[in-house]
Specification:
By secondary structure, the protein is mainly beta. Helix content is 8%, strand content 59%. The strands form two sheets. Strands 1, 2, 3, 4, 5 and 6 form a six-stranded antiparallel beta sheet that branches. A hairpin with an 8-residue loop joins strand 2 and strand 3.
């Protein structure tokens, strides 16, 4: 287990992403402009007209990912994730309305807001993190950056 505490408290905000904005790219812009290195993305809902995501396809290491692009009305039932080294890692549950299918996966760049998306960001103050590849498992861990 890896534990990461907010050494100097937290800062929270609600982010409202508007029609035509690209979700991951907008979140990255906010993280950069606010100087947010580490935190959580919580409570996201909304709609997309382009949804790019990937899912795992097996349980063995290394993982093999499947990439999907959904177009048309896509309802976001849930969106949450983590922020490490100013990089968002977002999981999403969506309903592909036209095809009556639900998908769960990792949100990718190029996903575009249809009407509105609302999400919460909790930024950890006084801590920096990074994503590193674990030499034993080849999986990615989030670890504190030592000053």
């Amino acid at each position: 287990m890896i534990r990461i505490d907010a050494k100097q408290g937290t800062k929270s905000m609600m982010l409202v992403i508007q029609r035509g904005d690209y979700v991951v790219e907008t979140i990255r812009d906010v993280l950069a402009s606010e100087g947010i290195d580490t935190g959580l993305i919580v409570g996201g809902i909304g709609s997309l007209d382009i949804c790019k995501l990937h899912t795992i396809t097996r349980t063995t290491i290394p993982s093999e990912d499947r990439y999907l692009t959904l177009k048309g009305p896509v309802e976001v039932g849930s969106l949450q994730g983590s922020i490490a080294g100013s990089e968002p890692h977002i999981h999403i549950v969506v309903d592909d309305v036209d095809n009556d299918k639900v998908y769960v996966g990792h949100l990718e760049e190029g996903s575009r807001c249809c009407y509105r998306m609302e999400l919460g960001i909790i930024a950890f103050q006084g801590i920096r993190t990074q994503s590193v590849t674990n030499a034993e498992t080849s999986l990615i861990d989030i670890v504190p950056v030592e000053d």
